[in-house]
Design a protein that fits this description.
Blueprint (H helix, E strand, L loop, with lengths): L3 H14 L9 E11 L5 E9 L3 E6 L8 E6 L8 E17 L7 E12 L3 H13 L1
Antiparallel strand pairs: 1-2, 1-4, 2-3, 3-6, 4-5, 5-6
Amino acid sequence: MNGRAGAGHSHSSHLSHLSHFRAHERRSVRLPVDLVGQRSGASSRGLVIDVSLAGAGLETEEALLAGEHLTISFATPTLWDPLVVMAVVAWAQPPQWIDAPEAGGRGRLVARAGVQFEFAAPADVLAMFDMLSAL
């Protein structure tokens, strides 16, 4: 009645534009990682294509499942041992053929997923921060 209804509508339409809002900026990278499914114990290799303190975008050969819990091992320039982080798959896409210049121009099958990190201790957050600072 005092203009609030219009403001509320504007606010909700504004929120729909924020559905992909991220609190931490992602940095484009190409970092090979080892992945282990926490329930299945199955291990595989992946490629981190973007990363932030909160999560990462991954490319894998096999599709991941949204909600799946993973252990991700990063080789970092700041630690002797790999940085091992727990994560949950926030979204996943099925494998698709993409151009792969590194494969001599041949395409390759790639699945993509986004993960949210679940740090076990403050020291793990600091180690990730140090790794990001070194990239």
